[in-house]
Amino acid sequence: MDKINAVITGVGGYVPDYVLTNEELSRMVDTTDEWIMTRIGVKERRILNEEGLGTSYMARKAVKQLIKKTNTNPEDVDLIIVATSTPDYIFPSVASILCEKVGLKNAYAFDMSAACSGFLFLMETGASFIRSGRYKKVIVVGADKMSSITDYTDRATCPIFGDGAAAFMLEPTTEEYGVLDSALRTDGKGLPFLHMKAGGSVCPPSYFTINNHMHCVYQEGRTVFKYAVSNMSDISEFLAKKNNLSKDNLDWIIPHQANMRIIDAVAHRMELPMEKVMVNIQRYGNTSAATLPLCIWDYEDKLKKGDNLIFTAFGAGFTWGAVYVKWGYDGKKAVE
Ligand code: UT7
Q1: Which atom of ligand 1 is the closest one to the Cα of 31?
Q2: Which of 179, 196, 213 is the last residue of a domain?
Q3: Following DSSP, what letter does each residue of 293-324 receive, concatenated?
Q4: Is pLDDT above 90 for 50?
């Protein structure tokens, strides 16, 4: 039997309309556009500010667009998996809500938790279902409403995050396209440096946790920064070498959009010019699990069949890794 690869056949995305600028943030906390641009590289981020709407609302918009663009009958979808740290509810999953909202009548669905590396891990996970031969259409979604866990009184974290969602369709092919290789890691050592203190089973919600802003992202920025730079750079270089990719035949690197200085460092290590690096941090900030697919959503028209792509991310856990994809279609045609 021929080897089955999992090829990406389309992308859909969604960001909310409301634009939170550095100017507005500098009226909320003691910060400046200049500090945020030089230390992080975010100019503005999108915020889902309508009451009663959660992550599944953005995910639903992204998946509906994906289904339309790929001409998919929703009843043909076998599986949908959502990577998120900000589900609508602790349970049920965002993915289960999507099944009803999008009309996926023959799919099963679940969420996956790997923080900012969620979508990276999900590409390999979704691809494995396709490679098994049992699944023909798998949707993978990265979606986060980071504004729901951001402390807008903490100047060290609130400029970083934004909201958004994006999704890929994965399908089988016997050609050499799609998710071809990956190197994924988790060490568990990151817990003290990046977590949400309350709301889980260790520390359920109480007046105390609410009064002390314990339902928001807690981050020791400098430590996380150091690990992010070294781990993303090392693993991307490792995966590139393993697949005989160098600055000459690697067409794109898609780094998690956490900090422009981290993105620069990874590009530098890979010896790639910035024209080969997907960057949209200035417009969306860090949308956690959504950054990687949102990059593809923005750059789709520039992608050509056969392009070599390396995705890389780093997040809470710590979790990190890199995924090698050979792109399967001319993006220009898909957006026309
Ligand atoms: O996506 C998951 C993974 N997360 C990441 O990859 C994030 C990694 N970390 C970072 O991106 C950076 O560490 C931050 C952007 C979070 C912070 O940047 P930094 O250059 O590491 O700043 P710092 O925390 O070391 O703070 C430097 C100074 C401090 O002042 P002092 O103590 O030196 O007087 C802060 O109080 O900058 C101050 N500061 C600010 N000043 C103006 C912190 N936040 C702000 C602010 N505006 N918003």
Answers
A1: 47
A2: 179
A3: HHHHHHHGGG--TT-EEEEEEEETTTEEEEEE
A4: yes
CA of 34 to the centre of ligand 1 (A): 13
Q: What is the span of the domain harbouring residue 294?
A: 180-335
Q: Which helix (H) or strand (E) holds 80?
A: strand 79-83
Q: Which region, left, alpha or beta, applies to residue 213 given φ > 0 means left and ψ of -120 to 50 means alpha? A: left
Statement: the pTM of the whole predicted model exceeds 0.70 = yes
Q: What is the pLDDT of residues 212-241, one digit of tens each?
A: 999 999 999 999 999 999 999 999 999 999
Question: Is pLDDT at 248 greater than 80 in this prediction?
Answer: yes
Mean pLDDT across 7-28 = 98
The residue among 123, 138, 129 whose CA lies nearest residue 171 is: 138
Q: Are residues 154 and 167 in the same domain?
A: yes
Residue owning the nearest CA to atom 28 of ligand 1: 156
Contact 117, 135 (CB under 8 A): no
CATH number for the domain that contains residue 292: 3.40.47.10
Pocket test for ligand 1, best of 30, 31, 39 (most atoms within 8 A of CB): 39
What are the DSSP calls for 48-62, one per residue? --STT--HHHHHHHH
Is ligand 1 within 6 A of the CB of residue 31? yes
Mean pLDDT for the stretch of residues 138-163 = 98
Per-residue pLDDT, 34: 98
**14 shares its domain with 156:** yes
User: In this structure, what token pair is assigned to residue 249?
Assistant: 């035949």
The distance between the two most distant Cα atoms of the chain, rounded to a whole number of Å, is: 62
> 324 is written with which tokens?
């090698």
Per-residue pLDDT reduced to its tens digit, 96-123: 999 999 999 999 999 999 999 999 999 9
Residue with the smallest CA separation from ligand 1 atom 15 is: 40
Work out how many domains the chain is built from and give that number: 2
Give the pLDDT band (50/70/90) at residue 335. confident
Tell me: do 286 and 307 sit in the same domain.
yes
Location of structure tokens 């993978």: 140
Q: Is 103 exposed, middle or buried (0-12, 13-18, 19+ CB in 10 A)?
A: middle
